[in-house]
Amino acid sequence: MMDFGLAERIEVYREFVNPVIAEIKTYSPIHGDLVRNRNVIDILRAYENANAVGISYITAREFKGDFENLKLICKETELPVLRKDFILSKEEIERTASAEASAILLIARLLGHKTAEFVDLAHESDLEALVEVHSAEDIQIVEESKAEIIGINNRDIMKLEKDDGDVSVTERLSGLISVKGRIVVSASGIRTLEDLKRALKCADAVLIGTALMMADDPESKLRSFVEG
After folding, report:
1. Separate counts of helices (H) and strands (E) for the chain
2. DSSP code at position 106
3. Contact (Cβ atoms closer than 8 angstroms) between residue 53 and residue 24
4. 60, 84, 144, 173: least CB-packed within 10 angstroms?
5. From CA 198, how far away is CA 189, in angstroms rounded?
6. pLDDT above 80 for 158
């Protein structure tokens, strides 16, 4: 694992560039296969070259993720790696740590009153917790935890990308976060530089997956976001 975690890197990056967590995403319920016979490590190198603040990888079967790919990515990069999945057990937190990931996604909508407990379990396994919210109720849940990073999902994860969420969700929910010192990440539905600029007016970083994976040149696409 690297010396600097995801939250700290975001704090440093935002002084110089737009902090973008770049996602290696295998499949989209809307767009289908996103890898398109490309090599996962080649995509990782493109993201590194374009100065991503961190790497996200989805292991969930709904997105045709592969845990072995997560382990490979963690082995091959010094950037912090976020595992995204529908985490519901302590065993999956421990499994994430064993892959030498840096951070884990916890979804407030799924965990409910167990969110704070799962954040503590992540910390005990030396993982940062990025807790995802999509509503005011979710924010109330996460603010009762010790999560250092709050991820505002512009889409409803339960609808698997089949809703029309956009950056306006981040604009609306970010103002409801009352606990100071939390890193806020806007995720999903960020397709253009204008989307990114809107998001970064009220968030510290963004997470982009589909727009990068659909690009013929992911490195150039990511660089346009990071430097734009």
Report:
1. 11, 10
2. E
3. no
4. 144
5. 12
6. no
Q: What is the mean pLDDT of the chain?
A: 93
The pLDDT tens digits of the residues spanning 160-173 come to 555 567 899 999 99
Contact in structure between 185 and 130 (CB atoms under 8 Å): yes
What percentage of the chain carries pLDDT values higher than 90? Answer: 83
Note the pLDDT tens digit of each residue in 197-225: 999 999 999 999 999 999 999 999 999 99
Beta strands at 32-33 and 128-133: parallel, antiparallel or unpaired:
unpaired
Residue 174 near residue 184 (C-beta atoms within 8 A):
yes
Largest CA distance in the chain: 44
Helix (H) / strand (E) element for 184: namely: strand 183-187
Burial bucket for residue 214 (CB in 10 Å: 0-12, 13-18, 19+): middle
Question: What one-character DSSP code corresponds to residue 20?
Answer: E
Beta partners for residue 118, in sequence order: none
CA distance 102 to 161: 25
Distance CA 102, CA 41 (A): 18
**Tokens coding 57:** 């990888």
| pTM (predicted TM-score) | 0.94
